[in-house]
């Protein structure tokens, strides 16, 4: 390895997604309207040798006492109304790989299926793009729940620890802090180490049922009795031995790669290699009439670990200079270890992109192109942190706008201009104490955040009614908005909840909703 290697700047963060009912939930999704009722117990069966046994169950069957490995005859005796269908292990694995590809496009570049019921993601350095690790896990679990898939998610420093906690831990979502792996898995059963069933039974015979006591035992007697598997799994769980994650790749992915005769590790060398990989990738995209929206740089180390860089763009691009700049900004996050022996650059998400005119005709002024700036900022702070507001057809102020991507195309809708709107709208209307002559007069004064403000002049009211078609609670609600200016010259947007006369229209309390510039 060359001198000048990069220092270790980030810890590995591995996410294990555990889908306990994946085969049965996949069957229900595939059958659609013809699937068994949601509360009907379902079991998928297959053969183990000459026996016909249950391979997968849903939640209702598990509550009835049916478990994987139970003979079919016994399962039917335990639950006479049990719905039995043939298992499809190959289809389950194919579906799991498709789901892994979906996560690869949206979460992180290194994603692999973990058959028969899991997915593994290396999210090192990518969590900030999704609002942090806790928010990232919540979004993944919620997205799966919305599609009818039950999931548990754990992020830890090693694949072994994340896998164990996802399947044997109690938490539905868990973020293990750096350095907390040993304490987190110490009380888990030894089966969580992915040991063969015979070794687990042998450890139980010795009176060892938890990982903590097992880790404290001498290695030599364990290796003599059970072979190298126990020590290897412990070292993988504690991060002493690397465990490779082989990412899934699309069948027709656009990618280029380069192998090195000698491992590389210096930042300057990595930047130079990025400069040699990007132009051929852009050429491939141009030949296919595509532009990339998401680019992944995978760096395979000599110790079987992989580092990854992901950059995204607001619009389809195949500009080599822009991509080189975006990728090189991420070099400082790479840990080359003892050296990098292979680099792969892939356009993990591409869209159709036609030819574009480079120069305008007849001296027309070019529209400023800010997409490069948008790309730089979004890859630093996250795509979700960069947005603009677009109008929504609603009279309720807090519902009259939505967040859209920074370069999303404009639609035909426009902001209402029949009444002035404040420059700053508060996230939630804040209650104020006010005195006013009812029913249609503005307040004489109001107290907001402990400061008494005397109203000098006002305009209004502007009455806004509830959206009755959205719920019974809004059938009679109303608000009266006023623009008021206090004696110091500051202007505010306040409203009374109600029409000032009828109690069913609102609480008749006063609220401050916005501030004019």
UniProtKB/TrEMBL annotation:
GO annotations under biological process?
DNA repair
The residue ranges of the DUF6504 domain are 434-514
| Pfam short name (any one) | DUF6504
List residues of the UmuC domain. 44-163
The residue ranges of the DNA polymerase Y-family little finger domain are: 253-357
Kindly list any coiled-coil regions of this protein.
none
GO molecular function terms noted in the UniProt entry: damaged DNA binding
Under the subunit heading, UniProt states: Monomer.
Known function? Poorly processive, error-prone DNA polymerase involved in untargeted mutagenesis. Copies undamaged DNA at stalled replication forks, which arise in vivo from mismatched or misaligned primer ends. These misaligned primers can be extended by PolIV. Exhibits no 3'-5' exonuclease (proofreading) activity. May be involved in translesional synthesis, in conjunction with the beta clamp from PolIII.
What's the name of the protein?
DNA-directed DNA polymerase
